[in-house]
Each structure stands twice: as C-alpha cells, then as structure tokens.
Write a structure and sequence with these properties.
This is DUF1292 domain-containing protein. The protein has 2 helices and 5 strands, in the order E-E-E-H-E-E-H. The chain has 89 residues and is α+β, with helices and mostly antiparallel strands. It has a 5-stranded antiparallel sheet with strand order 1-2-3-4-5. The mean pLDDT is 88.
C-alpha cells in the first residue's frame, strides 16, 4: 500500500461496528513505525471555534490502522506529534 498522506480520508469501523470517516492530520515515523494523527471528518468540516478530538493510530506494514496498545508508546507518539505541531506554529 502507498504511504499515508496528510489530508487523506478513510472509513474506520469502531468496536460497535459503526463506521466513521477520519481525516489524516499529520504523519510521523518513529523507530521505523508510521503513526497518523487523525480526526473525525465531521468534526473537522464543522466551522466552529471548538477544538477537535485528535487520535493517534499506528500504521501497520499493510497500511492498515491499529490502536496504540501501551501507555509508553502512546506517550512517545503524543510528545512527538506535539513537538511537530509546536514547530509549525
């Protein structure tokens, strides 16, 4: 599968078998693993001053999204994305 790009929209299914469209907001590679910061497309498209919820997902070798399973990994990814977003401001 091609590399995931910022701005791409995907449909994911949650644990309740409900489909949600997400948009990729940022992508980073840490220690050879790709991670994507994503938000719900509906929230992103709303023209509001409220902050949107951002989620971090791991991208596997096939290009599929999976959950980050450990608190340590989540913290590492969260800090890396925060650094990127701070640099862009």
């Amino acid at each position: 599968m091609d590399k995931i790009e910022v701005g791409e929209v995907f449909t994911i299914t949650d644990e309740n078998d409900q489909e949600n469209e997400i948009e990729v907001l940022a992508v980073i590679t840490l220690e050879g693993t790709d991670y994507a910061a994503v938000g719900f497309l509906e929230d992103i498209q709303e023209d509001s001053e409220e902050e949107i919820d951002v989620f971090f997902l791991k991208v596997d070798a096939e290009g599929d999204f999976s959950a980050i399973e450990s608190d340590e990994e989540f913290e590492k990814v969260s800090v890396a994305f925060e650094e990127i977003m701070t640099e862009e401001e």
